[in-house]
Each structure stands twice: as structure tokens, then as C-alpha cells.
Amino acid sequence: MQSQNARQDIILSALFSVAVLTMPIWLQPIGAAYPDLMQKFAIFGLFAIGFNILFGFTGYLSFGHAAFLGVGSYTAVWSFKLLTMNVIPAVIFGTLMAGIFAALIGFISLRRSGIYFSILTLAFAQMSYNLAYSVLTPITNGETGLQLRQQDPRVIDQALGVVPEAGLPVTNLFGFEMQGYTGFYFCAILLIIGFIIALRIARSPFGMMLSAIKSNQNRLNYIGVNTRPYTLAAFVISGMYAGLAGSLMAVTDPLAGAERMQWTASGEVVLMTILGGAGTLLGPVLGAAIIKYFENIFSSFHEAALLSAFDFLPDWLAEPVASVLGLFVGEGWHLTLGAVFMLIVIFMPGGVIEGLNKLVSLVRRRPDDTAPAAVQQPHSAE
Amino acid sequence: MSILQVKGVHKNFAGLRALNDVNLTVEEGSVHAIIGPNGAGKSTLLNCFVGRLEPDTGSVDFNGTSLLGLAPHEINQAGVCRVFQTPEIFGDLTLVENVMIPTLATRDGAFKLNGWDRVDHQAEITEKAEHLLEDVNLIDKKDMKADFLSRGDKRRLELAMCLVQDPKLLLLDEPTAGMSRGDTNDTIDLLKRIGERGITKIVIEHDMHVVFSLAHRISVMAQGTIIAEGAPEEIKGDQRVRDAYLGGAHL
Q1: Does A275 have pLDDT greater than 60?
Q2: A&B contacts, CB < 8 Å
Q3: Is residue B77 within 8 angstroms of chain A, CB to CB?
Q4: Which ipTM score applies to this complex?
Q5: Given a cut of 80, is residue B15 above it in pLDDT?
Q6: Which of A81, A265, B52, B150 gives A66 a disulfide partner, CB atoms 3.0 to 4.6 angstroms apart?
Q7: Which residue segments constitute the domains of chain B, with CATH numbers given?
């Protein structure tokens, strides 16, 4: 019985790994199989997995996680500028620095819970954004954003005698340049590691305490558990995931801007987690991929494309139809996102994962039907 | 030997005198009942034992060390567990998880960062939890979410959550309120059985049937102070108690 649970988790991890690593194949038919977009799936998947440890497991809704994303990005770019173009130090420093920031912000914010906690995190994130945008210009390069320059010191590269080429240097992993598929696979492997760590946390005594905090913090205090260090640990871990995601953004595109810390970015990860299914293991990754995919598809549409799509309609009809639908694409794709989000929250409060679980149990009740959906999601992630 | 010593405890709430010079000594291994009319200060007194309230003056000593200024989790780790008047359980979690959590808290202390261990590989934790669920007759429902339990079952679950910790002192705030006669008798039997393990218990109760079946000693509270204390037979015959508690009716 016990080893059976462990075996199920190994199967889940294996299926997840295979699904992530074969994305270039199975995303082909829906036109998402190019490295830039798949990288985003992996990076935002990590961001959402980490966010879910705090929000989904522990029940603390942070509206300021983009701050840690930004800290991770800035730290990674500085690592490229000062030390080396190798991505390993950038990723490690980005994650650690975000962890330190999370410890500071968490220590103060976690004195409150519920809406007050959310507001405190939002305030801290907006402070970080404004610091990055104006006050700390020497560190963040303000409005322009922090960029690489050819004359950066890169002391480790210098010491190792790496010859600077013409043009800007490229981020690399011991010589493998982080572009195209290499970049994607680097992010994908970190996503898999991040997923397995979250899975282990969920199954651990520590994770059980987190779910108890979400359920009844008062009771937990009176059976001898000090909840403060648990919530702080969850906050720091999720901040480190955000820092890792931020540093991977810098790895795949070495610049960092303050807009990464804005509250809209914090809100986006909340949407991803709820859309996919807060508290589940696979949900946040799925939510991140869905939002990034639709952002990509819908934002590339524009009114002219719609007009040609509605060619077959008479002119007097085609134009109004295209202009109404035009509100939902291009710049206005957030309208589509909002509508989809509302539908999901109203009809499937447990997110996409809940929907898939319902589908699976529906199919299982009629075993004679073939079930393509069940093949993709055989495991309810709790 | 006394396990809990309360001396000269006062507590005011914005001018209202909730506790007025309470003195109480609880003997180790005994069942000590606190009875009294509503608003007498019984629950307030318990709150002072578990760190929910701090007395204005006075001392609360448990096993020779003061409980004042300690956080609730520190008091629990010292060996005091409380069953609340309204059941405090983990409603979203299963029954077995509800009992595993206090088991882990006793084993691991107030905090442990064990995020890589598998809880389902720690058989002793699961076994202990299931054993306690058997004791309180809830083993059949062990994979059910605790929210779906009846009120009486929730109380029994909460009792199991405290018993699994093997506390030195168990505080029971109306453990049978809202239970049917049958459930009440089951609970009395259960409390008698665990009495054999030597856990000291303080019971707040309105049901005199429960009080006189269990208690070795009874303290009667009225208007924030203890007006009488003694063995059950003494209390039954005490005129002050009858006047204060039941307006002169026979107990």
C-alpha cells in the first residue's frame, strides 16, 4: 500500500518528464512547437508550481510574487555581466537572491493572514517595482532595463581566457549556447526537477503541516506546532521558484526590466494557478501553458486577419463582426483571457484539472467508449 | 502530587471581572471537574492554561514551571492538550490525516523542515493514528473528510487528536455537549478507559451525569471565583453550590 503510493508518484514523475521533453513533437499540430514559446511554458510553469506551494498548499494568497521574478532576472543578468556568461552561477545566484528577498518580505507579511497578507505582499512588490524603475537606477538601469554590454568585466570568463567575440556574448552552459532548442531543454529539465521537488513536498510531513495550516491554523497551534516557521519556509521556497523562473528568463533573453515586477505579472501567476487548479500538482503547469499559449495565439491576430477570415460574409456584416471580435484579439486578448477565466471559475472552481478528472470518471463509467482524454491525464494529481 | 497549581488568578475584560482570585490545585492522575453556571468563567480559566489568554495577575504552574508568557504550541509541547467547546479539527483533511498531524507534532516538535521524507513511509505514524481512531470508533470513516462528520463524531475525533499525543494534562471543554445519551455514555466509557493510562484531566461540563461518573474532585465556579471544592459526595450536599448553581434544586 505504501510502496504503491510511491510507485504511483514515480510513474507520475516519469510521465510528466516524458510529456515535457517531447513537447516539440506533440505540440506540433497546435502550432506551439517552437523553442521561444515552449521555453515560456517551462519558465512560467516553474513560477506557477512555486506559487502553488504557497497559495495552493498553505492557503496564503500572495499578490507580490513578481518581485521575486524580477530579483531573479536582475541577479542573473548581473552574474552575466560581472562573472561569466555560463548560466549555472546565474541560475544559482538568481534563486538564492530571490530566497533572501522572500525571507525578508515574508517575515513581515506573514504577521498577517488573509486579505491583509495579500495587501502587504502587493505593497512590497509595488515598492520593489518603483525602486527598480527609478531609485535603484545604478543597479537596475531604470526604464531602459539592465542589458549586457561588450565591455562588461565578466571576471571568470576573463580569467579562463574566453576570447570576446564581436557583438554581444551569448549565454551558455559550458559552451552550449542557450539558444533555440538547447535553451528550451535547459528550462525543461529544471521544470522537471522543480515538479519533482514540489511532489515530494506535497507527500512529506512538512507538506502535511502546510495543508493543516490551510485548513485550521488555530488547531495546529494548540497541538504544538509553531506555524510561523512553516509559513515562512513555504514563502521562501515559493519565492525561490519565482527567482529561478526569473533567472531563466534572463538565461533565454539576457535583459531584465522593471515591468517584470509589476502587479500585473503577480496577478498573472494567480490566474495561472487558479485556472489550472490550485492545490493540485499538475494544475499550475497546465494553467501556465494554457495562458501563455492563448496569449501567443490571440495576441498575434489583428483586425485585418479577422476581416479576411470573414470574407465569406457580405461586407455589411463582415465589418461589424470583425470589429467586435477584434476587441478580443491582438492587444485586447486579455478580454478573452478574462472571459475564459470567468467561465472556468464559475463552472469548474477546481480548475482545468478538476474538469479533466470529471471527464476521466465520466469515461470510466462507460468503459466501452474510447477515451483520448484519459490517455493524456491518467493521474488525478490529488 | 499536584500537576497544575493556579494561584490568585485575576482577569478583567474592559472592567468586567471574569476571573477573581482563582486558586486551584489539580492532583496528578486525577479527573478534576469544573462546574458552574454559564458565564462563571470556566472557559476563561481554561484559556489561561493554554496560552490563549494571559491572566492580569496570579500564577499558573504546570509540573513546577510557569505557563505564563508561553505560546500555545510551547504549552502543548510541555504536555497540555485541549479539546475545545466547538470542535477544532482539520475539516478539509481526512480523519487519519487529522490524527497523524498531532502525532507528527509530538514526534518532530514545533517545527521541522522535512520536505523530502515521505509521510506514507513512516508506518509508525499511520499505525498510531489508526489505532487511536479505533479507540474512538471512527476507524470505518478514516478516509472521509472530517467536515462530513456529525458533531458528536467531530468531538471524538478531536479527542483522538489529543490522546495520540499522550499528554500529561488533558483539558476537556464540555466534551459531551450536543451528543445523544448513547454517544455521551460511549464518551464516558472512553474517558474512563483512558483514565487508566494515568492522564490527568480537567473537565468542564454541564451534564451532572458525566461529572459524577468521572470526577474524583469537583470545583464549583460562580461569578469568576471558585466557591466550593471537594469530592463529588461533598459537593452534592453543599448548600452554597445548590444556591449558586441550581437555585436550590437537588443535585
Answers
A1: yes
A2: 112
A3: yes
A4: 0.92
A5: yes
A6: A265
A7: 1-79+169-186+199-251 (3.40.50.300), 88-166 (no CATH)
